[in-house]
Structure formats: C-alpha cells, structure tokens
C-alpha cells in the first residue's frame, strides 16, 4: 500500500513539474516575441507623413533599433532594463534628427503605445 502511494506521488510530481516547465517555456516565447519591433514602414510613413528620404532614414534607424531590442531579449533580467533604455534613447536620438518636431511627437506616441501594448513599459 505505501509503495503504491509513493509511486502515485512520484508520478503526480513528475506530471506537475512537466506542466510547470511547459508554461515557463511558453512564457519565454511570448516574452521574446514582445521584443520584436518590426513595423510596416509604409503605414508608419503614412502616419508620420514622411518624405521618401525620411522614410529611408527611418527604416535604417528602426532596423538598428529592432536588432538592439533582440539583443535586449537575449540579455539577463538584471541588465535587460538598462539595455532597453539605451536602445530606446539611441533610437529616439536618431529619430529626432530625421523627423520634424510634429513627426517626432507622433513617433513618440506610437513607440510608447507599442511598448505599453507589449508590456515593456512597466514601472519597477
């Protein structure tokens, strides 16, 4: 009788551990997805009323930002926040040079909404 209870306990523990590990892996995939910042450049160009030259510059700047954010996703939790802030500051610095004041304000709202929607703009 006790052997049967022990065996059932071990099986139950293995099942619970496996279920927990699956949840953790799923959350990791979703977490990594949050850092993917690809956008539709045509739509972004329309929203910001970009000229052709601005659109090309914005595309280059944003692609560098996307690469930086994927590096952030791969970083450990301690350095992740600092790396993300540096990536955002770098992106905004370059965008400020390329965009007019009105376009820049709209870009800030779009970026802030994107970060909020992905859960990356949390206050710690």
Features:
124 residues; elongated
Structure description:
This protein has 124 residues and is an all-alpha fold. 83% of the residues lie in helices and 0% in strands. The chain contains 5 helices and no strands. It has helices spanning 2-34, 41-48, 52-74, 77-98, 101-117. The radius of gyration is 22 Å and the shape is elongated. The protein starts with a helix and ends in a 7-residue tail after the last helix. 12% of the residues are buried. Mean pLDDT is 78; it is low at 15-29.
Instruction: Please tell me how large the radius of gyration is.
Output: 22 Å
Given the C-alpha coordinates, what overall shape results? elongated
Low-confidence stretches: 15-29
Strand content: under 5%
Structural class: mainly alpha
H and E order? HHHHH
- Count of runs of 4 or more consecutive helical residues: 5
**Major sheet characteristics:** none
What's the arrangement of secondary structure elements?
Elements: H1 2-34, H2 41-48, H3 52-74, H4 77-98, H5 101-117
Task: Please sum up the structure shown.
The chain is mainly α. The protein contains five helices and no strands. Mean pLDDT is 78; it is low at 15-29.
